[in-house]
Write a structure and sequence with these properties.
There is one protein chain. Helix content is 38%, strand content 15%. A seven-stranded mixed sheet has the order 1-7-6-5-4-2-3, with helices on both faces. The chain has two domains: 211 residues, Type I PLP-dependent aspartate aminotransferase-like (Major domain) (Aspartate Aminotransferase, domain 2, 3-Layer(aba) Sandwich); 102 residues, Aspartate Aminotransferase, domain 1, CATH 3.90.1150.10. It is built from 14 helices and eleven strands. It is globular. By secondary structure, it is α/β, with parallel strands linked by helices. Bound molecules: pyridoxal-5'-phosphate (PLP). Pyridoxal-5'-phosphate (PLP) binds next to helix 5.
Length: 364
């Protein structure tokens, strides 16, 4: 068959997940608890048959863009919406990269970056984490060749959770602009971090920022993400947009979230508090902890192989990520020999959940 053979070689990993119940879904950085029934019911009551029978209207997309625009203090022309930030990132890679080109990001990173690289026959150039501190900003510049078309950096980064300063981001934008290289800043976890980089899209010609409703906003199932950049970049990437990138019900759901921002803001505030408090509790109870500016953290029993903690989380049916000695799978962090780290998403009050209490008492 005459098909693109490089597509047949792409390896996709789709792990089954044990459950997606509230307070137990700790493997995908989603909102951990459910919304109040009244809040969700008022969205359900806004749905009509037409939302499912008909295509969304272009006016509906404009309404969503206008609502996002007012949330972030930009004009609609600076915004591009698509099916999750996943799809926005793919569109930016397609805009810049093609066979024989290169793009740069960290290793580890959000795994879809290198899947997209393979789709577009582009070489993914890794800037590795090799020590406790994240790779220097100069290491991105050192990785540039005459084939480099794009640099992607998640800030905060995932899965490690580190956060770049304003100065670092500014420096990278300026250096990449001098070299005419597009810089995509992935802000999937920005709500859990000290500040964003949105002002950089006004200051530099080569900068795009991507965000999602999947994490802090509690909308992973709606699949809505958006890109922000100068009007020229946004109009170019819009040439790649699907006719109807977001479904009618998803549009309504995300508008409901934007219209009730205070509900989301309260969730973010308590998630940050609980994240930091859980990290301290773990540190004081025999765990090594990798603190994070996202809503996921890593931890490992200081003097043991983490099996006891993994067993307790599994007994409680918690969905989480881990390296597993029994199954031979590996979850490592870059500068540590241990392959059995636990990665867990956090949310309000997680430090009081029975599985955490049990884990802590097993350490004593
Ligand atoms: C850093 C980062 N970027 C982008 C995404 C994609 O999220 P979504 O497609 O749900 O918007 C994820 C999801 O885990 C992520 O971790």
């Amino acid at each position: 068959m005459k098909i693109n053979d490089w597509i047949t070689q792409i390896k996709r990993v789709r792990n089954p997940r044990p459950n997606n119940s509230a307070l137990l879904r700790c493997d995908a950085a989603e909102r951990l608890n459910n919304f109040e029934p009244d809040f969700f019911q008022s969205f359900i009551q806004s749905l009509t048959q037409e939302d499912f029978i008909t295509y969304p209207s272009f006016q509906d997309y404009e309404t969503l863009k206008a609502s996002i625009a007012s949330h972030i203090n930009l004009e609609s022309e600076h915004i591009y919406i698509s099916t999750g930030s996943d799809s926005c990132i793919k569109d930016v890679i397609q805009l810049t990269c093609s066979s024989g080109s290169e793009f740069i990001s960290t290793s580890p990173c959000f795994p879809m970056y290198f899947v997209f690289a393979e789709m577009f026959k582009t070489r993914f150039v890794k800037v590795p984490y090799t020590q406790k501190s994240p790779p220097s900003v100069d290491s991105f510049l050192q990785a540039i060749s005459d084939k480099t078309r794009l640099v992607i950096l998640a800030n905060p980064n995932s899965p490690v959770g580190d956060f770049r300063t304003k100065e670092e981001m500014n420096y990278l934008c300026a250096e990449l602009e001098k070299r005419s290289i597009l810089f995509l800043i992935d802000e999937a976890y920005i709500d859990f971090a000290p500040h964003d980089s949105l002002d950089l899209i006004k200051r530099y010609q080569n900068v795009l920022v991507v965000r999602t409703f999947s994490k802090a906003w509690g909308g992973a199932g709606a699949r809505v993400g958006y890109l922000m950049g100068n009007k020229k970049l946004i109009s170019w990437v819009s040439n790649l947009q699907l006719t109807y990138p977001i479904t009618g019900p998803s549009l309504k759901y995300v508008l409901h979230l934007l219209n009730n921002k205070e509900v989301v803001e309260a969730y973010i505030k308590s998630t940050i508090q609980s994240r930091d408090s859980l990290c301290s509790i773990l540190e004081n109870n025999g765990y090594d902890v990798l603190r994070s500016h996202t809503n996921s953290i890593h931890f490992h029993e200081q003097n043991r192989n983490n099996q006891q903690s993994i067993d307790i989380l599994e007994q409680h049916n918690v969905a989480f990520k881990s390296g597993n000695l029994k199954k031979g799978s590996r979850l490592s962090i870059p500068y540590d020999d241990r392959t059995t780290w636990i990665r867990m998403s956090v949310g309000p009050g997680i430090e009081y959940h029975s599985y955490i209490i049990e884990m802590l008492s097993a350490q004593r």
